[in-house]
Amino acid sequence: MGTPQYILMCGICCQNKSLPCYCVDCTDSLCVDCTKDHEKQKPDHITLPMAESRCPDHQKFYAVHCRMCDMPVCRECLTGFHNGHTCSNMNQAKAEKMHQVNRYKRDLSENVCSYQSSEDQGSKQLENYKSEINAVKMMINGQRERLKAMVDSQCDGMINSVETTLETHMDQLTGELSGIADCKRKIQEEILRCESLSGKGILEIKEFLETLPHLKDIPDWPPALSRPVPSKFFPTETSSSEGALKQMIGNVVLVRIHNSFSCKLPVSNIQASSADEVWVSFPDEKLLTKYHYNKEKKQARKGRH
After folding, report:
1. What are 125-181's pLDDT values in tens digits?
2. PROSITE patterns, alphabetically (predicted)?
3. Which of 23, 28, 133, 199 is deepest in the core (most CB within 10 A)?
4. CA-CA distance, 54 to 49, in Å (whole number)?
5. Does domain 6-94 have CATH number 3.30.160.60?
6. Residues 26, 3, 7, CA angle at the centre, nearest 5°?
7. What residues contact 279, with CB distance under 8 A and at least 6 apart?
C-alpha cells in the first residue's frame, strides 16, 4: 500500500490539496510543492511524512522527542505516560540521530577505502597475471617455432639425402636397362636374318654360316642388374623421446598458492625472500611456493590471496 495522503488545507499556499508532509516546527501540513520550497528556505525545520507525524495513541501531531523513551511524542503524551520525562526538541533529536548516522557512515567510508585499496591491488595483480601469462605463452610459442624450424630443417635434409641417393641408383639402373635393351634389339635383328634365309639360295646360307658368330660382344645371358639397398626411415618411439623433447623445449616454473599452512623453521630450498615472505622450491616439483613469515610465532605460513 502507498503512503496515505491527507486532504487538508496547506499551511503555506492555503489550498485544498493532498498533504503528504508535516512541519513539526511550523505545525503546518504541507503540499508537495510547498514542501520542496519549505525545505530549501528552512532547512533546519523538521519535516515528516504525514503518516509518521501523528501520535498513534492520540492522533495528535508530534511536538517533542522523549529522551528517556527515545521516541517522538505529542503534547497529550507529556501529561500521561511521558510525564516528567526529559525531552528535547525534534531538531536536536534529529541532529543527534544524524550524528550517529554520520559516524556510522564515516566508519563505512573507511571500510570502503580499505576494500577499494584491496580491489585495486587485486585488479592490478590480475593484470600482472595476464601479462605474465601472455609473456610465458609468447616464449613457449617462440620455442615451438624454433624447434619446428629445426625439425623441418632436419627432415628436409633427410628427404634430400634420400632423393639424391635414389636418383644415383636410378641413373645406374637406367644405364643398365639401356644396355640390356640394346643387346635384346641386336639379338632380335639376328633372329629376323635367320628367318629371312629360308627364301635364299644355298650359297648365301653357306656364307651366313661361315661368318658366325655375328654377336661376339653379346653374352648369352644378360648381366645381373645392380640391386642397391633401399633407403629406410626408422622413427624414434614417441614414448622414449618425450623426455628428450621436453628437455629441448624447456620447463615452466609454476607458482602454487595455498591456504594458511604452518611449518617450523628453518625453511630449506629458498629461492627468494623479503622481510615478511619467502619463495621456496622443491627438488621433485617444478613449482615455487610462497610463504609468509609470522614473526610472533616464528613460523613460515603459506600465503592466502
Report:
1. 999 989 989 999 999 999 999 999 999 999 999 999 988 888 888 899 999 999 999
2. ZF_BBOX (PS50119)
3. 23
4. 9
5. yes
6. 55
7. 270, 271, 272, 273, 288, 289, 290, 291
